[in-house]
Records
---
Amino acid sequence: MSGEPVKRPGASPPAQATDPVAPMAGAPIFEARDVSLRFGGVRALTEVGFSILPGELFSIIGPNGAGKTSMVNCISGRYRPTQGAVFYKGRDITALTPNQRATIGIGRTFQNLALFGHMTVLDNIMVGRHHLLRNNFLTGSLYWLSRARREELEHRRAVEEIIDFLDLQNVRKAVAGTLSYGVRKRVELARAMALKPDLILLDEPMAGMNLEEKEDMARYIVDLNEEFGMTVVMIEHDMGVVMDISHRVMVLDFGRKIAEGLPEAVLRDEHVRRAYLGEEDEVLVDPEDAALRPGRVA
Ligand SMILES: Nc1ncnc2c1ncn2[C@@H]1O[C@H](COP(=O)(O)OP(=O)(O)OP(=O)(O)O)[C@@H](O)[C@H]1O
Ligand SMILES: [Mg+2]
């Protein structure tokens, strides 16, 4: 699998997002309106607005400390914006908890691995499905038994499908903590997919991987977008991968959106080039923020 090119010709938005006869045409699956987030004196995000269409593979890029993870945390509910609002399928979800957002179809992975190291791969993935469980020990009376049994079988089937999809058959019984970093990242993706999210948030899914692992991961992401129909928000520092597989890209710098559009256009954008070259952009950079600016990735 790793030898195949990941390039997506044209990298244009999927048909369902642009089809004029589709009932949801043009209606975003997610929208951020005027989102600002402060941590004391630090402005992690300032008036960021954007929307994502169903079926898109949408990447968020920017230098270290630009606010990418903060934005994803505002989508997942881990952080609540200090100002502004976030909408999912047209509904204002700003006040919902992360669990409530997971239940309505927003799944995520973390920048730093968050697996249960002592548990098996299978159990880690099953944990991802607990939001979908209707029956637990409280409702586990005889009356519910057949339904619970059916539900259990459905969970197993769904988990096995994901294990096959991500080529994790060989390690399904292995204790997660004993596996290589690249495989653990894949298990984390499996757990996020197990929730069957409509919108999946991937925070640096390829960080720390070698080239081969990166190529594999890029292909899994393209496939989960195309085959499983999941809308993807991906944060990634590897520009080659971002440019190859994204439909659209948004660039953050100093917590502000400085560009958004097709990958090629974003790459040519003057503000983006400055942000990545590390030159000061007097139009966009607030001198107050500049003092707080952390280090950059070349
Ligand atoms: N929980 C927090 N408490 C205080 N400051 C925070 C917190 N989370 C983020 N920040 C600050 O907000 C800013 C944006 O951080 P964020 O983690 O969103 O950046 P990032 O773009 O994801 O960076 P990286 O590429 O390094 O992961 C940084 O200045 C960071 O120090
Ligand atoms: Mg981050």
---
Amino acid sequence: MTSTLLSNIGELVVHAGHRNMSDSALVVDHGRVAWVGPASEAPPTDRAIDLGGRAVIPGFVDSHSHLVFAGDRAPEFEARMTGAAYTAGGIRSTVRATRSASDDELTTNVARLVEEMRRQGTTTVEIKSGYGLTVDDEARSLRIARAFTSETTYLGAHVVPPDADPAEYVELVTGPMLEAAAPHATWIDAFCERGAFDADQARAVLEAGRAAGLPGRLHANQLAPGPGVQLACELGLVAVDHCTYLSDRDVDALAQSGTVATLLPGVEFSTRQPWPDARRLLNAGVTVALASDCNPGSSYTSSLPFCIALAVRDMSMSPSEALWSATAGGAQALGRTDIGTLEVGRRADFVVLDAPSSTHLAYRPGVPLIWETWADGQSVYQRTPTNGGLRG
Ligand SMILES: [Zn+2]
């Protein structure tokens, strides 16, 4: 393995509190960040790359996605945009499509979405099951996801499938389905919401998971106030996701427990729900992460730059805070200490922006600013510059 110096960096974001604005350099060696500092003091390396004043930021850590599915739900989106409300029940149409898809079709779709993420700067992704909802289909979804990431999450408790009895289904999720899923899963999750699972059911799922060696995470307080955030904090979960409707008690519990609040603004964009109040959480000392929730129903975006732009524009996060939440915050939401920042010793997962500073992520929304993505010290995506002009 060769050591590489990246120099002439316009802005180097080691983490949100450490942004070097001029002539910064970074050395990558053996897949790790080996050195950061002013270019004039850089150690000798095997090769050097001049980044021409572009910014370098940590790779995005997308701690919440649902990539194992078939089909899409564009008509449902169109109906919502012309006045229909979002309900958890739409998940069932994706369950039908996913069950009837082949392994190859599901794998091809995950590969397409992971590639889409890489092109937008994501270097770590968590992937959930939850569109199978049978013993075999949940195990198969997780097995497929595992080929792409070590951060796989068993979400048999996504919704109660059509025609199933809720109590019997929870027994299946906490029994034979858990047993089949556990070898392929790192985490367990549940959707605690009216129309999905109540607090007692979610607790049963999370406790069974913990007993099987799977720590929990939770979908909660997305569509209305509810007991999910309190439950997550009481159980000491690493993260609770959505957090759109929070009481003062919920905010206090998050601040005291240290459970990360993962906000998913692609969902509010795509369902026309109110934005989660990031400012209130940050002011209370809660750790906030941003993730895509990429799924075909409520948030069909794989772009963390887009989520950052929404968080800055509509959720009162500063550009630095939003970037931290989509990198270091995502890493904390996955309990990871090897990724999320560019401190020496961390994994060399980073993004070169075709812009002089990370502020451009929100300042230039919708613009493809990812110049290059590096994962594990290797370039895994590079934009090919073209000379062609637009036609008249
Ligand atoms: Zn989700």
